[in-house]
Each structure stands twice: as structure tokens, then as C-alpha cells.
Design brief:
Helix content is about 45%, strand content about 15%. The chain is built from 15 helices and 11 strands. The longest helix is centred in the last third of the chain and has 22 residues, at about 340-360. The protein is globular and about 55 Å long. The mean pLDDT is about 95.
Length: about 350
């Protein structure tokens, strides 16, 4: 019986995690829940699963992790506010099932230095796929990692045709419903750029050996290419309950967590090269990740502000990455610490807002 603390219990990852746990009560026990502000839903969840320890907000979530022993902490919080709970989970010695990619990206070496080998288990479908494929070879045998991207709603478009994109169009993702910022990030490919940084940190593979391919069916969730020319892919219908279940009990699989592919019907899977001229976010993220220090935190924060400005109608769709690039280029980076990260993020948000005003 694994004891689970679930952070972000009212969000998409959180509610699906509870579905997996509910179907496997003999295997998992929820001992703590935390969310942002939806107190009514958290209290209903606590009553259903017999949980006496609940928290609201990132600071209380970190305290919950420190005070309540658990085998696994699932961090499903959205945004870089999840950094404190991520560090608390690592310091507690629990396995960290990480869906909050932003905390790893902005925390970088600060997070990895606190993690014991194998302590972080990725919940993102792409990184879970890589982790599964990597079990088939040694680290020294890996030639490169290949992350798949759906291509979002604007796959195949020219850059000029994106100039008039509306917020409603940017939220029309063909596969996933992930909230305003993440869904918009998927359309600009910023989300894939962040996942490249995450892959580098999790698996220790250099950026020049991490590739992205466009796979609109979202069936192959990522691949590992080995030095002998073999490529191993993890394939399954798009369902987050599968990587969540692996996060809860890695490396063991939970029967029935997901639905398998139907091999009795014909299907076609496409893989296309990423057009970096139309979607420059991935190459931008690689440069930011390679620069390290507080650059990834600034990249992430500036992007969030630019996305909000786009949805407010203040800037256009193509302005999002232009704002981010301008903020990153003007940043004076600092060594990583909780204080420097907080200062860098605050500065980036103010600077992005100023750039938005100047553009509008």
C-alpha cells in the first residue's frame, strides 16, 4: 500500500489521479490533498477518500509535504509556484511524481541537486514515454531522445497566416484540453520547448541530442533512439491516467489504468519535421535551457504574461514570442537560488508587461 500526497487535486491531473487511486484502493491510499482555492471540491475529495490533511496554496502544500509522511508526492500544481512543494517533496525522501514541469524548468540545477537518483518520476506523457523506453538500454547507448508534438491547431500553416489568429482559435487544441496558458503554449510550441528543457534535466541528454517531431495523432508519446540504430517508441491512446499510474507506482504497471490500442481497425500514424521558422519556440527554449541560470525562469514568466496579454486582446498571436525574446535578451542572469528565481520572475513579468504596453 503506497501512501500518496496529491498536490493540485482539483485540476485535470489531480482529478485523474484520484480516478486511478479510486480504482485501486488496495494499492494506494491518499493521505494528503492540496489545491489552489476550490475548497468545496477539496473537502468533497477528502471526505470520499478519508483524508484528514488538506492544504490550500503552494506554501501550505509545501508544509503538508513536510508534515505528513508519504511514499509518493504527486505535484500537479500549475505554474512555477510549484517549486516550493517540489523541493519539499525531494527533501522528504518521497518519490516525486512530477506533472508540474515549470518547477523543474525554472529550478533547474537547484531541483536536480536535491533529487536522489530515480526520485523524480515524470508524469508528462512525453517524459513518461521516454522513461519507459530507456529501460531497454544503458544511458551510454542512447543516441538521442525524440519528443513528439501534436503540432497544435496550426500545423502546416505559414508564419504570415498566423498573424490574425484569435484567442479562440489558439485554444482549439485537436487532442488535449489543458487550460488557457498550457493550451496556448501548445499552439505556439512553447510547451514543447519547455518539455525539451525538462527532458534534458531529467535524463541528462545534451540539447543537441534532443529532437522534436510532429505526430498529429498523439499515439506515439515519444521515442528513444539508440546507438545501434534501433528506435523504441511508447504508444497508447491519449489518456493521462496511464502515465499517472506509472508515477504512482514506478516502475510497476497498474492493470487497467488505460485503454490499449485497437489493432483490429486500420490506422495511419504520421511523423513530420518541425518547421522551426514558423514555430521558433523549441529552438528558443533550447538556447534558454543551455544558458541556464535564471534564463529559463524568465522565459517561462515572460511567456505567461505575453499569453495573458494576447488573450486580453492587447497584442497579436505572433507578438507572444517576440515579447518573450525581447525580455530574455535584456535579462541579466544570476546564479540559481530561491531568492534569485523569485526576483527574476518578478522582473520578467514587469518587463514583459512593459514590452506589451510599448507594442500596443
Amino acid at each position: 500500500m503506497r501512501k500518496i500526497i496529491l498536490l493540485g487535486s482539483t485540476g485535470s491531473i489531480g482529478t485523474q489521479t484520484l480516478e486511478v487511486i479510486d480504482a485501486n484502493r488496495d494499492r494506494f491510499e491518499v493521505v494528503g490533498l492540496a489545491a489552489g482555492s476550490n475548497r468545496e471540491l477539496v473537502e468533497r475529495q477528502a471526505a470520499r477518500f478519508g483524508v484528514s490533511h488538506i492544504a490550500f496554496g503552494a506554501e501550505q502544500a509545501a508544509e503538508l509535504v513536510r508534515d505528513v509522511p508519504a511514499d509518493v508526492v504527486v505535484n500537479g500544481i500549475t505554474g512555477s509556484v510549484g517549486l516550493g512543494p517540489t523541493l519539499a517533496a525531494l527533501d522528504s525522501g518521497a518519490v516525486l511524481a512530477l506533472a508540474n514541469k515549470e518547477s523543474l524548468i525554472v529550478g533547474g540545477a537547484l531541483v536536480m541537486s536535491r533529487a536522489k537518483p530515480g526520485q523524480i518520476v515524470p508524469v508528462d506523457s512525453e517524459h513518461s514515454a521516454i522513461a519507459q523506453a530507456l529501460r531497454s538500454g544503458e544511458h551510454s547507448e542512447v543516441r538521442r531522445l525524440v519528443l513528439t508534438a501534436s503540432g497544435g491547431p496550426f500545423r502546416g500553416r505559414t508564419r504570415e497566416s498566423l498573424r490574425a489568429v484569435t484567442p479562440q482559435e489558439a485554444l482549439a487544441h485537436p487532442t488535449w484540453d489543458m487550460g488557457l496558458v498550457v493550451t496556448t503554449n501548445s499552439s505556439t510550441l512553447v510547451n514543447k520547448g519547455l518539455e525539451v528543457i525538462e527532458a534534458h534535466l531529467l535524463f541528462g541528454v545534451p540539447y543537441d541530442r534532443i529532437a522534436v517531431t510532429v505526430h498529429p495523432q498523439s499515439i506515439v508519446h515519444s521515442m528513444v533512439e539508440f546507438v545501434d540504430g534501433s528506435t523504441l517508441a511508447q504508444a497508447s491512446p491519449p489518456d493521462m491516467r496511464l502515465p499517472i499510474s506509472l508515477g504512482l507506482d514506478w516502475p510497476h504497471r497498474v492493470a487497467g489504468a488505460g485503454v490499449p490500442l485497437d489493432w483490429t481497425t486500420a490506422s495511419t500514424w504520421n511523423f513530420d519535421p518541425l518547421d522551426n521558422e514558423v514555430f521558433p519556440a523549441v529552438e528558443m527554449a533550447k538556447a534558454v535551457g543551455a544558458a541556464g541560470l535564471t534564463y529559463p525562469a524568465v522565459f517561462n514568466a515572460a511567456n505567461e504574461q505575453a499569453v495573458y496579454a494576447f488573450h486580453a486582446g492587447t497584442i497579436g498571436y505572433l507578438d507572444i514570442l517576440d515579447v518573450v525574446e525581447q525580455v530574455v535578451e535584456s535579462h541579466d542572469a544570476a546564479e540559481l537560488s530561491l531568492e534569485s528565481l523569485a526576483e527574476a520572475e518578478s522582473w520578467a513579468r514587469r518587463e514583459a508587461d512593459a514590452v506589451v504596453v510599448a507594442r500596443s
